[in-house]
Amino acid sequence: MKEIFNINGKNKKIELRPDSTLLEALRDNGFTEVKNGCEEGQCGACLVLVDDVSVNSCQILAMSVKDQTIVTSKGLGDQHKPSIIQEAYVDAGAVQCGFCTPGFVISTYSLLKKNPNPTEEEIKSALDGNLCRCTGYIKIIDAVKLAAKRMNGGEDNEK
After folding, report:
1. Which of 16, 36, 60, 143 is 20–30 Å from 91 (CA)?
2. Is position 51 within any domain?
């Protein structure tokens, strides 16, 4: 069946099965920035925003959010026009293989929207549920701190 979803600010007609998870529906329709990690809601690779709340897209049926606004990490910025958060991840060296990065970007966005000046403990708590096998998390935490600083006007965006 085909349904219209609002994804990254645009209405998109996507093909899906009635029992498709949001992860399956997004990936099957070209939104490959949403990663298929564990399909159990444990790794954070499939995080997206649904009406500005981060959710594991592998854990909800697509049709349950049909009339809501869905934003992927690409909806926050892309390689041609990255968001402050995405730039901070690159500048802090927090991107290695890149598989987990979209989920971390969504978690960082959610955190900084609620708390623009988080402590390190608040950052760790907000990133709980996102798994990375490459970086060891130190550079990821540094990236969140850098993004917060830049969003608060504490540093220009020049590299």
Report:
1. 36
2. yes
